Amino acid sequence: MTTPKRVEIGWPALGIAVTAELDDRNAALAQSLWDAMPYRSLQGHALVAGHHLYHVAPVHSLLYQAATYKVEDRRYEPDGTIFASRLQHLGIKYGELTEPMPAIPIGRVVPDDVDSLAEAGRAVWEAVYTTKKPVIAEVRRAGENNGHSLPRLTVTDPEADALIGDLHAETERIWLEAPQELVDLHEGRIPSCAGSYETVLTTLLFVNGETRPLGYAAYGGLVRAAYEDVPLESLRQMARILTSTPAEFLAYCGLEKVWYFTRRTLDCIDRIDNRDDFAALMAHMTLYLNCLGGWNLHLFPWQLGDHLRRVSAPA
């Protein structure tokens, strides 16, 4: 067994930091995360799964890198377990989980810091559910300085490479600051007047329902398909089928840049002549959409449903 890689995960706004060790159960995934450090990201909290923290990690390879070890049900893993996800998330279990699903562990918060982790988890839940004050996670190698950068891939076609440059710049711009389009939408400023009878919550609900799968499933799925040797022409067809309709709808709801970048992407794909370049462009679209999705989940007014609580079954 190799020496564990020690990392520090801190939330300066909360005054809390924990130390974790990345292990060799999924060594390649742990190395990819290690290589991306240091970075910062908006801290999210699970909304249906239980006591679980996650944030979007700026690591393109998380979308496609194969796991060598999986657990069948993450509910039974120790508190403090760190998971890598093909949704481009770094997740940390800090208490009871209710969602039974396989997961990819890559490390664990040291036992002495598990109580501090739970404290951070409760504070992040309050931020996501009620206060809407962003909590930024700082992830670094233990003993090293904090910092932040987003990876920028390159491709051979000049037009596609210019598009990647623009996507990278826009993702950097909104990575740690809420996108104005989403702020306007959540404050009821919707130029298209989307929302029947002047409602806003209905539009927010549909935007959330389209943004997350567009990043997680459509663009993220295209990256995985490219690395699984799907023929390039089939990849082009899949891109047109999977991305155009939801992106156009999101523009109607106020996220015009999603449609703008999607149109440019679809215009470019016939010029791309190899799967690696196709995957690179789709990876940048995925990171951009996943960043938007994270902000949308943070801004969404979950507290409006506070009166709706689970009903326990009779004993």
From TrEMBL:
Protein name: Cucumopine synthase C-terminal helical bundle domain-containing protein
Cross-referenced InterPro entries: Cucumopine_C
Organism for this UniProt entry: Nonomuraea dietziae
Domain of life: Bacteria
Positions of the Cucumopine synthase C-terminal helical bundle domain: 161-299
Taxonomy of the source species: Bacteria, Bacillati, Actinomycetota, Actinomycetes, Streptosporangiales
